[in-house]
Amino acid sequence: MQTLTQKFTRHGVWALIALGGAGALATIALHRGETVNALWVVVAALSVYLIAYRYYSLFIANKVVSLDASRTTPAMRHNDGLDYVPTNKYVLFGHHFAAIAGAGPLVGPVLAAQMGYLPGMLWILAGVVFAGAVQDFLVLFISTRRDGRSLGDLIKSELGPIPGVIALFGTFMIMVIILAVLALIVVKALADSPWGTFTVAATIPLALFMGIYSRYIRPGRVGEVSVIGIVFLLASIVLGGQVAQSAEWAPLFTFDGKQLTWMLIGYGFVASVLPVWLLLAPRDYLSTFLKIGAILALAIGIVLIAPDLKMPAVTRFVDGSGPVWAGSLFPFLFITIACGAVSGFHALISSGTTPKLLENESHARFIGYGAMLVESFVAIMALVAASIIEPGVYFAMNSPLAVLGPTAESAAQVISQWGFVVTPDMLLQTARDVGETTIISRAGGAPTLAVGMAQIFSHMIGGKAMMGFWYHFAILFEALFILTAVDAGTRAGRFMLQDLLGSFVPSLKRTDSWISNGLATGLCVAAWGYFLYQGVVDPLGGINTLWPLFGISNQMLASVALILGTVVLFKMKRERFAWVTLLPTAWLLACTMTAGWQKVFHENPKIGFLAHAGKYQAALDKGDLLAPAKSLAQMQRVVFNDYLDAGLCVFFMFVVISVLAFGIRACLAARRSSQPTTREAGATLARA
Amino acid sequence: MLKEIAHLGQSVGSYLGQTARLMVGVPNYNTYVAHQRREHPDQPVMAYEAFFRERQEARYGGNGRVGRCC
């Protein structure tokens, strides 16, 4: 009897949480046609996370991989006080979360909101519980048991050297696409926005000052210099508002997309060859702390303000005719929201610094699975922020200019035809509220999120007068960590490239040579710069082309990581639990292969690269010009770019299929053996 | 009672500080010093400034490691 009561009390509270979550979901599902409060979404999400953490992650920890609290971790074996340090569970959680949270979970859900908030929300929740958090947790576990080795190394040792090299090439290309798409988001947010451009530009001298301060004036005072930096940062937002209103100064900071592209490319090159302490490190302090602060403020804001969701639960664009991005719900929703549901990039982080800092193997559940749940919550908040905006304004901000036409009148007319009520005045007023001249066709997610965040923050502090400040605060916070990612990514890409090319031309491997460094950096910047430029001049807005490529590549990396997880489960002789990784792998493969196939071969030129190329080629053959190309040379470039994008898609599909084949081979080999075939480091300590 | 609350506040603050520093790649300096004294008494211990620079170089200096997500 005793045990039954205990059991009941133990699970009773969780049953209540489950009921609460089910109630919230039911409220959302049944309120069709009426507005739903955002708090229901928050309650539903939190209940799902708590239940998943309490039951599913515990099942994985105990039954599937059997985390062993008495086993030595890399941090214990190699403790050097520097790279390998046994670290407090909660401190490490913060470190890991800061490393995995970026622009991805903020942008994807905003773009996905064109289908309504419900499909995106359901995918974020299901994706994180069964795929994203499982991947992060398992890779952290696998790497911890193998001395904290990196994903590339793990694939090499568990699957073989050939899939290792293939995965390395794949990772480099993913890096290029990510940098291009991130830079594109910045360009879209800053184009023709003197306020935004000024504040982002002001971070460069500010970071240089912080760099010198923390190097020579007060060495190593991270907290102090960050506080100084953030104060100046906020001041620069205020000053930016003055600049934007000044007839003299505003033109100096007003640039179009192409100009900003060239500036970013130049910046990327210079920033990534400067010493790290001068620009990269101090800006990383700013972006990291601002990011954590903004995420916390957003969470507090949504709970305090409890806004209504104005976006319908499901819009008519689930059929694939949406203006923000083309393609039907399956498979494109599932690649549009990558980070927040499942992100392959996290596999690189989970096999990076975190496993070297783990104090106890049993913490891998809290840090690996738990941190990803929090990241997923960030995605839910981004979805909420995009859904509290008037849908008409949302579509005006995110649709391509080619569809909307140049003026507020034409945009309002087009959007009203889609069934979303909006007047030209509403569009102009929103722009005025946030201190911009126009908000039309500011694709890329960041400006939309910024409008949503500005609505929430200005309700808390400052009212309507502060909306411009909060809008540019949100833009700045996103631009800051995107620039940090561009800089750090270019450096990482340069080393990857030197490593890869070094196999053919050994002299390129020399990282102490200025020529080889400059060459590799230049190649890396040229690679992402090319895709960025192509995105900026794209008539459909660039995001339409680059975001699916990014989503496909990121989800494919996730499949690769989950295949690795499956192979390890087979080698541990735990194949009866392999469905834990096989299920999400199968789903991701179905989504990415379908999406990849459609991006290449779909007959609709808005979706398929080859169909798009065919359309332009046909016009070219007749000597016709298709907008926005203004010359035959530009037409030829459009065709070339389509083939390039199609080729890239095929390459990503090749990467994942070959890793899958090698994975199956490794699983079959492990099955044949009657013994576990894992080679793990770190024996179990003698039990006291 | 007040003393205990102050003590609790202090240790929470210290953990928050540690978390913030580790977020930007600087582990706890005292832990490093203690480790060095205990395990390698014969070797020199880096001063905080040198430790900070070493960590900065390790986090951002490259070697192809990806330190953060998109």
Describe this structure in words.
Chain A is an all-alpha fold and 688 residues long. Chain A contains 27 helices and two strands. Chain A has a two-stranded antiparallel sheet with strand order 1-2. Chain B is flat, with a radius of gyration of 16 Å. At the A-B interface, helix 4, helix 8, helix 12, helix 14 and helix 22 of A face helix 1, helix 2 and helix 3 of B.
Largest sheet of chain B: none
Query: Whole-Å distance between the termini of chain B?
Result: 46 Å
Query: In percent, how helical is the residue content of chain B?
Result: 55-70%
Total number of strands of chain A: 2
Work out the largest interface and the residue count of each chain: A-B, 60 and 42 residues
Number of strands of chain B: 0
Can you give the helix content of chain A as a percent range?
A: over 70%
> Could you tell me the radius of gyration of chain B in angstroms?
16 Å
Question: Uncertain spans of chain B, ≥5 residues at pLDDT below 50?
Answer: none
| Portion in beta strands of chain A | under 5%
Strand content of chain B: under 5%
Order of helices and strands of chain B: HHH
Shape category of chain A: globular
* Total number of helices of chain A: 27
Oligomer: heterodimer
Content-based structural category of chain B: mainly alpha
Q: Whole-number radius of gyration of chain A?
A: 25 Å
**Secondary-structure element order of chain A, N to C:** HEHHHHHHHHHHHEHHHHHHHHHHHHHHH
